[in-house]
Amino acid sequence: MTTRTATLLPRPSLRFLPVWRRNLRVWRKILIPSVLGNFGEPLLYLLAFGYGFGRLVGQVGELPYMVFLASGIVCSSAMFTASFEALYSAYTRMEEQKTWHAMLGAPLDIDDVVLGEVAWAATKAMMSAVAILLIATGLGLVADWRALLVLPVVGLAAFSFAACAMIVTALSRSYDFFMYYFTLGITPMLLMSGVFFPLDQLPPLVSLLAHLLPLAHTVEIVRPLMTGGEVTGLALHLGVILAYGVVGYAVASALLRRRLLR
């Protein structure tokens, strides 16, 4: 095991791939219930909110509410899946099962383990996004082939959500601590990032705060790609999402290096 406590900057390598593969192999043992969950939960959201609120709302701009909602569910599902995996599952492997300690006995560094965990969380989020896209396509809620471009965007966003969640994992001393993150971070971001209603319906200050968060920028890209609209401000949106991922990964690696290698 090597230590690089002299620097706060992570130095990841392709050695993160065995960590990613290990998590994939474990996940394959629960493949069927996991896949059913990926399809069942988003379908429930779409039907319950889409048809329920859709009857009351009608249209949002020129879009039927069901179409408007589908793109938001793609983004929010990626956020929840990536965050949950980087919180509860990663913490279990780190603290309860001591899997990370065993990994660090191999020629792996903390940066490789963290990157492998974040990449795996992003992969699981991509599975959820694919499931929702398939459901949305089957329900006629996708405009054209450009919806395929949603996948790399969601993958980048999922990496950022997972990296930020990994910071919380690095600081947490128990599972209970995660509720603060969901209550004070994830839930407000879900409600004020344009998933269920347009951002221009919010007060200007709230809308400004929403655009400081990665979910709003993800929705701004994904929604026009799924509905046939024009994507504007692409560089800004991708820049914000990428910044959260890079900074989140760097901070999480530094914190976990201090926690595990002290």
Describe the structure.
The protein is mainly alpha-helical. Helices cover 72% and strands 2% of the residues. It has one domain (16-260). A two-stranded antiparallel ribbon has the order 1-2. The longest helix has 32 residues, at 65-96. The radius of gyration is 19 Å and the shape is globular.
Q: Termini distance? A: 13 Å
Write down the Rg.
Answer: 19 Å
Please tally the β strands and state the result: 2
Strand content: under 5%
Helix content: over 70%
- Sketch the topology as an H/E string, one letter per element: HHEEHHHHHHHH
Main beta-sheet strand count, sense and barrel state: 2 strands, antiparallel
Helix segment count?
Answer: 10
Q: How is the quaternary structure best described?
A: single chain
**Rounded mean pLDDT score:** 88
> Low-confidence spans: pLDDT under 50, at least 5 residues?
1-6
Dominant shape:
globular
Strand order of the largest sheet: 1-2
Number of domains: 1
Overall SS class: mainly alpha
Keywords:
262 residues; 72% helix; two-stranded antiparallel sheet; globular; single chain
Q: How are the secondary structure elements laid out?
A:
Layout: H1 16-27, H2 31-57, E1 59-60, E2 63-64, H3 65-96, H4 99-103, H5 110-138, H6 150-171, H7 178-191, H8 204-210, H9 214-227, H10 234-260
Antiparallel strand pairs: 1-2
Helix pairs in contact: 1-5, 2-3, 2-5, 3-5, 3-6, 3-9, 5-6, 5-10, 6-9, 6-10, 9-10
Provide a short characterization of the protein structure.
The chain is an all-alpha fold. Helices cover 72% and strands 2% of the residues. The chain has a two-stranded antiparallel sheet with strand order 1-2.
